[in-house]
Amino acid sequence: MNEAMLMLMTQVDDVPGELLGDFIKQCETVGARNIQIVPAITKKNRPSYLVYVDIPESLEDDIAILFGGELGTWGYRILHAEHKHFDIQRSTLVLKVAALDDEYEFELRAKTISKAQQFTRVKAEYEDLSHICTVFREKGLKIPLSVLKAEVEGQILKNGHQAVINVSF
């Protein structure tokens, strides 16, 4: 049921950033799980990039074609590594925000990350937090995303994945 995963790596030294951005989008469309592009320096002090793509094994040919066609690479490496996953608990909460002499309700997705039944981290979904900040900016209240994130994640850490989380500004 769980398909084997591969980490493909290639090096490019003659591709502009705009093409790399398009390459990332194409990899995502094909089904890549993760893409990392790391700037590097190669022989003769030339700038280059190391491109890492984490994929299900069945996508190797699709990504290889993108490597050759889009990036012009002459080949790629398969890095043999084992990926260990954390235990992720996803939940959707109601976030009640008291601000501007009123109370607002938003749907908020969050994840709790743990390993061996030991909690490691809470992460509220960026898109949901960004939307909430945008709503308040349009009403004239500037809540920095980092402040909202810290407040929400602190409440989830303190109270767990309750159905309703309350914050005030």
Largest sheet: 4 strands, antiparallel
Question: Which word captures the global form?
Answer: elongated
Q: Specify the CATH architecture of the largest domain.
A: Roll
Give the averaged pLDDT, no decimals: 91
Order of neighbouring strands in the sheet with most strands: 2-3-1-4
Beta strand %: 35-45%
H-E order: EHEEHEEEEHHE
- Helix/strand-derived category reads alpha+beta
Number of β-strand runs? 8
Radius of gyration: 21 Å
Helix content: 25-40%
Q: Any idea of the CATH class of the largest domain?
A: Alpha Beta
Task: Tell me the span between the first and last alpha carbons.
Answer: 47 Å
CATH topology of the largest domain: Ubiquitin-like (UB roll)
Give the low-pLDDT segments: none
Tally of distinct domains = 2
Number of helical elements: 4
From the structure above, extract its key features.
Alpha-Beta Plaits; four-stranded mixed sheet; 169 residues; Ubiquitin-like (UB roll); four-stranded antiparallel sheet; 2 domains; single chain; 4 helices
